[in-house]
Design brief:
Layout: H1 6-18, E1 25-29, E2 35-39, E3 56-59, E4 62-66, E5 74-76, E6 111-114, E7 117-120, H2 134-139, E8 143-144, H3 148-157, E9 159-165, E10 168-174, E11 180-184, E12 188-190, E13 193-195, E14 200-208, E15 215-222, E16 233-238, E17 248-249
Antiparallel strand pairs: 1-2, 3-4, 4-5, 6-7, 8-17, 9-10, 10-11, 12-13, 14-15, 15-16
Length: about 250
């Protein structure tokens, strides 16, 4: 009978230990202190991608998004009075901060009649961020109505297309960085009727028309099978009628 020496036993033990099956594991340690372990044999390829992160946030409980505009203006994702992008929100006469049931010159807060003529109360050439701004009054500073130049920048620097979001028609605006906002076609409020809902959008801006201070600038858009090119109405519209408002963050 062959006797095993001490050296032989040690050699056998070493062979047994080093002959055990091993795996090559890729270990990824994340910044949140979690670890991801992946068997190398299960990996087909490793690809590193640069992901475009769209800056967003909330102020006073209302969400904003940075669309990558040259001015850096941050737009709200919802209308005043809405909690979702596709909701219409409230309708406001220009310079009024509360909704009502009837919208016309007779119910407009900042008009009076003298000697049979209508006279509009001058509440400012630009009411952004003032007590007459429905955005500021309802959402607080630094939310405010967009100016003429800010709305022009939005339309001219972004791509705009008619879209349907969660069953609601409206304007989908895509910024230079790929971020988007949706302006629902909320129509408008004339007298005691809500008109053109789903067909037309009308959004107040913060300034009165230079040509006619009884009117204020606004953004109108509607769907046309032949063309779709929204632009600010430089002729403006009567301040006493009910339009929707999409706020921006005042710098």
């Amino acid at each position: 009978m062959k006797r095993l020496t001490f050296t032989s036993v040690v050699s056998l033990l070493c062979l047994f230990a080093f002959g055990q099956t091993t795996e090559d594991i890729m270990v990824i340690e994340k910044k949140n202190a979690t670890t991801l372990r992946v068997n190398v044999e299960d990996i087909q390829r490793v690809v590193f991608e640069t992901v475009n992160i769209i800056p967003t946030g909330t102020v006073n409980g209302h969400e904003w998004i940075d669309l990558g505009l040259p001015s850096g203006t941050k737009w709200a994702t919802c209308n005043v009075g809405a909690s979702k992008p596709e909701e219409y929100g409230g309708y406001y006469a220009w310079g009024e901060t509360k909704t009502k049931s009837v919208y016309n010159e007779d119910t407009y807060q900042y008009i009076f009649f003298h000697d049979g003529y209508q006279n509009y109360v001058h509440i400012g050439s630009d009411i952004a961020g003032t007590s007459y701004d429905a955005s500021t009054a309802n959402w607080g500073n630094p939310w405010c109505m967009p100016s003429l130049s800010q709305m022009n920048e939005l339309i001219n620097c972004c791509s705009c297309q008619w879209s349907i979001e969660n069953g609601v028609n409206g304007l989908l605006v895509t910024g230079p960085n790929g971020g988007t906002i949706f302006l629902p076609a909320a129509g408008c409020h004339f007298n005691d009727e809500l008109d053109l809902v789903g067909e037309n959008g009308r959004y107040w801006l913060s300034s009165i028309c230079l040509e006619n201070p009884n009117f204020s600038y606004y953004l109108p858009f509607s769907f046309s099978p032949k063309s779709f090119n929204p632009s600010v109405d430089y002729g403006g519209y009567g301040r006493g009628y009910g339009f929707t408002i999409r706020p921006i963050l005042n710098k």
